[in-house]
User: What shape does this take?
Amino acid sequence: MTIVNSTALPPFQRVFDEHAQAVLTFLVGAVGASEAEDCFQETMVSALRAYPRLGDASNLRAWLFTIARRKAIDAHRGRARRPTPVSDPDPGSAFDSHPDIDEGLWDHVRSLPSKQRKAVVLRFAGDRSYPEIAAAMSTTQDSARQSVHQGLKKLRRELR
Amino acid sequence: MTVDQALSERFLERAEARGLVDVAVATMDSPIGSLLLMATPKGLVRIAFESENRDEVFGEVAERLSPRILDAPRRLDPVRRELDKYFGGKLRDFDVPIDWSLAGTFARRVLRRTARIPYGSVASYGEVAVGVGTPRGYRAVGNALGSNPIPVVVPCHRVVRTGGAIGGYGGGLPRKRWLLDLEAG
Assistant: This one.
């Protein structure tokens, strides 16, 4: 007798087809258009690697966004120093921790102090360069950089 | 909605480079309908007719082999080339490597024996049963053939009833008849 697992995982191709666009859109917002593809590819490869160990297929999108968020944060860190290899996410706990990160991250961004919020949104949602951000905020480039930096630091603390 | 083709292809390249494509998938058109082809790094593991339920086919492969299943048509190019030639009457023996993982021990013996029936000839269920050393097990042989994971390439269509009746076929009798007619020339 064959035992049929009722929560059998769909082929990874289907997961990719259904959620890739949403993950990419999130990453363009989170790290900017130029770095989004790298983060996207890393997210999907990590997900593929961990996929057979994922016990629960009921919220695959949330699981993918959890991985994407980590890759986005790694990318921010990577700007300051060389990226360190990140181990594969543990599918179980990753799944539980941030079920609605796509909404959640921007909620956190919205609650940043105004200068930081503007700078972070211009930088990552708008993909603006620092001279452009400085111009948009009528401030210096150093100050724009500083605001983005502080905003990200705060986000990282809150999202940990 | 999915992302653009180039992005998907770069993802597939990375996945392949890291050895993460456990099951490669392709589809092809054929005179007996569209065929779903799957291969592992070991070889061709599954061919499904369009009459089979895709969810069940994928579900079984995901569970018994791996859910790391990706569309990777290039990996099945050799299989497609051989099948095209076969359907065109220009190939008699398949040469692609086979992965028997989806067949149980007994079924594997039956299918290997079946693979030795020459192009254009047939054998009876009883003859195959004798061939695998279970002369009275023709019914079990029938079951094993019915669950052949790699029809056409593993030619279970060449097994018929004693006396000339065509017998059964997992893909439906019209397909079996078409294949036997093709091979009769």
Q: What stands out?
A: Helices of chain A lie at 12-31, 33-50, 60-80, 91-97, 101-110, 114-125, 130-136, 141-159. Residues 111-160 of chain A form a domain with the Arc Repressor Mutant, subunit A fold (CATH 1.10.10.10). Chain A touches chain B through 23 residues (CB under 8 Å). The radius of gyration of chain A is 17 Å.
